[in-house]
Design a protein that fits this description.
The chain is 45% helix and 21% strand. With 313 residues, the chain is α/β, with parallel strands linked by helices. The protein has a five-stranded mixed sheet, with helices on both faces. α1 crosses α3, α1 crosses α4 and α2 crosses α3. The radius of gyration is 24 Å and the shape is elongated. The two termini are 47 Å apart. The C terminus is likely disordered.
Length: 313
């Protein structure tokens, strides 16, 4: 009998979840199958790895020693898949992912075309939804991974930066600020705002920077809160107020002169887009290739513009 990665992966998941049933659900296995694999692993090492006498499974001394090695084997497997995806040209299968509003509606669509040319045999199913819905579907294994506008802190989720973006002040044609290239926060704060709903990634980035500069976002004159970027754009175009959005979400309106993008000179609204996935599952190679494609595209685009492409400290 030989030691195999699958058994170490199951052991790591049982240790993380604290029970066979939770590990079975996370790995999409039956509980008897998980139990059998753990028994096989214990027979291989000739020692008990798990203490089953309590309500919650606990690691024995040998189990505690094995755990970091199991974790390292999972990390090494992920690194291996990421590196080998760079050399894999013939990929096929179905890639199921979720994306938050701005990413799914404005950032990803133009990138799917070149990715499809590189990998014509990969079918992509994209769902646009909020972060909570994405995490729920990932937990139920109906999505391989998701792309969201803010990092997710959750014990079962791995959250990694894959792309970057920067919000700018968006004003309608004919607005007093439309002829300006830059404004200050104080100048922008004097005008009514149309904003995304509370909890959206775009609004969170905006409000965090306002607070960092000593301005309470609640002091802004918010005349309307809307549940989609499209609705915000329409309201601003109609002259109901100004807003903060990613230029990628208003590029057509900017090209037509319906809206204008203005930089805020004394603030930075840079943000990153994050991939989210379960710790207990390995991504299919098609998903690894897609994430690698997004990182490469972002790097190339930033390099052309002369921007920094590595994570800020």
């Amino acid at each position: 009998m030989a030691l195999n990665f699958h058994q170490l992966h199951i052991f790591h998941t049982v240790a993380e979840k604290g029970s066979f049933s939770a590990a079975a659900a996370a790995m999409h296995m039956t509980q008897p199958a998980v139990t059998m694999q753990m028994q096989t692993l214990e027979e291989y090492f000739g020692t008990k790895l798990l203490n089953r006498s309590t309500k919650k499974i606990e690691l024995t001394e040998s189990g505690r020693i094995l755990l970091p090695f199991a974790r390292r084997s999972i990390e090494l497997m992920r690194e291996t898949e990421t590196e080998m995806a760079r050399f894999t040209h013939k990929l096929e299968g179905r890639l199921q992912l979720g994306a938050s509003n701005t990413i799914g509606e404005y950032v990803l669509p133009p990138l799917l075309v070149p990715f499809g040319r590189q990998h014509p045999d990969i079918a992509i199913s994209l769902k646009v939804m909020n972060t909570t819905q994405i995490l729920d579907e990932i937990a139920r294994h109906t999505l391989n991974f998701g792309l969201v506008e803010a990092p997710v802190v959750h014990p079962d989720i791995i959250s990694e930066s894959v792309m970057h973006d920067e919000l700018r002040l968006i004003v309608p044609a004919g607005h007093p600020l439309a002829s300006r290239t830059t404004v200050t926060l104080a100048e922008a704060s004097a005008y009514p705002f149309v904003l995304r709903e509370e909890g959206s990634g775009t609004r969170q980035v905006m409000e965090d920077e306002w607070r960092a500069k000593g301005i309470d976002p609640r002091s802004l004159r918010t005349v309307m809160e809307l549940g989609s970027t499209g609705a915000v754009k329409s309201a601003v175009e109609a002259g109901l107020g100004i807003t903060m959005l990613s230029p990628s979400s208003v590029k057509h309106e900017l090209a037509l002169g319906l809206l204008h993008a203005v930089s805020v000179e004394d603030a930075s609204f840079k943000r990153r887009f994050y991939s989210v996935r379960l710790k207990s599952t390995l991504l299919p190679i098609a998903a690894v290739a897609f994430l690698d494609f997004l990182r490469k595209h972002q790097f190339g685009e930033a390099a052309v513009k002369g921007e920094r492409t590595h994570d800020e400290p």
